[in-house]
Amino acid sequence: MASNRSQGGIQQLLAAEQEAQHIVNAARSAKTARLKQAKDEAEKEIAEYRAHVELEFQKKLAASSGDSGANVKRLEQETDAKIHHLKTEAGRISDDVVKMLLKYVTTVRN
Questions:
Q1: Which family does it belong to (predicted)?
Q2: Structure confidence by residue, pLDDT tens digits, 68-90
Q3: CA dist 96 to 7, 84, 100, 104, 105, Å?
Q4: If you count DSSP H runs as helices and E runs as strands, how many of each does the chain have, helices first?
């Protein structure tokens, strides 16, 4: 009878060990599934964030490109105005400059 009891105890221990192994395997599977789900969610968030940042970058790029065209036009207008001013001033004082140069060229000094 003691032998039966020890056999029953051993069988009971083996059954408990198998049940524990099943519980551990189920926990590992659940953990692996949760990690995979977390990884998928993180990749999705990263993709959404990347798309958002890319959109903001494209908006800023478009805005600065538009500003660049406006800046070029403004600079061209300023340059044209300065050229016009210089031509006007040159025309205004050119007679005086020619007279001064002729005076210095034709005057003899000892």
A1: Belongs to the V-ATPase G subunit family.
A2: 677 788 899 999 999 999 999 99
A3: 129, 20, 6, 12, 14
A4: 1, 0
